[in-house]
Design a protein that fits this description.
alpha+beta; tt1808, chain A; six-stranded mixed beta sheet; two-stranded antiparallel ribbon; 27% strand
Length: 186
């Protein structure tokens, strides 16, 4: 006798997710994001995490001047069923370009990871790769490293480099810029 596998959840679209948020379905303090149709709870932000996000924004705003928006913990509209909120994203244009809709791509996405390290690596990185985001960084607070992912293909990044505090990094979209990794760590 064959046994059918049954999913025990409903997959939401971005439109449904945004409507639920607008109608107050989620508690105002709730930190959630939509990934491939599933609403995920996001880990609480500790002081190290918050400091790293601030340091990233400060460093990236010096590199990506006019013509770019360095966004902190704001949504990206990736396909019909995903609306992740990366810790930092560098998107083309300015803030007013996204008044009527979230950006659908980014030049660089950064996740700050401590307790969320496996989730970021296993769930969010493949999502970003599937949507063609050319570069993703993971600030690994556990190991005090910056993981640089590049060359998205088939839902994976083919290139991964781990950098330490004494190293520097140059974003693909601004190869002339040199950012000390130590400047990104709390």
């Amino acid at each position: 006798m064959a046994v059918a596998e049954v999913e025990t959840f409903h997959r939401w679209t971005r439109e449904e997710y945004e409507r639920m948020a607008a109608e107050g379905y989620f508690h105002p303090e709730a930190r959630v994001e939509l990934i491939e149709g599933i609403v995920h709870d996001m880990a609480p932000k500790g002081s190290f995490h918050s400091t790293a996000v601030s340091l990233l924004q400060q460093a990236l705003r010096k590199v990506f001047l006019s013509g770019f928006d360095v966004r902190g913990q704001l949504p990206l509209a990736l396909g019909e069923d995903s609306e992740p909120e990366p810790d930092v994203a560098v998107v083309p244009g300015g803030p007013r370009d996204y008044t009527h809709g979230h950006p659908t791509t980014a030049l660089l996405v950064v996740e700050v990871s401590d307790s969320s390290l496996l989730y970021d690596r296993r769930t969010k990185l493949p999502l970003y790769a599937r949507h063609g985001i050319q570069e993703c960084w993971v600030v690994n607070l556990r190991n005090k490293t910056l993981e640089v992912y590049r060359e998205p293909s088939d839902g994976l990044y083919r290139s991964r480099t781990a950098l330490q505090a004494g190293d520097t990094v140059s974003p693909l979209a601004r190869p002339e810029a040199v950012i000390p990794v130590a400047d990104l760590m709390p």
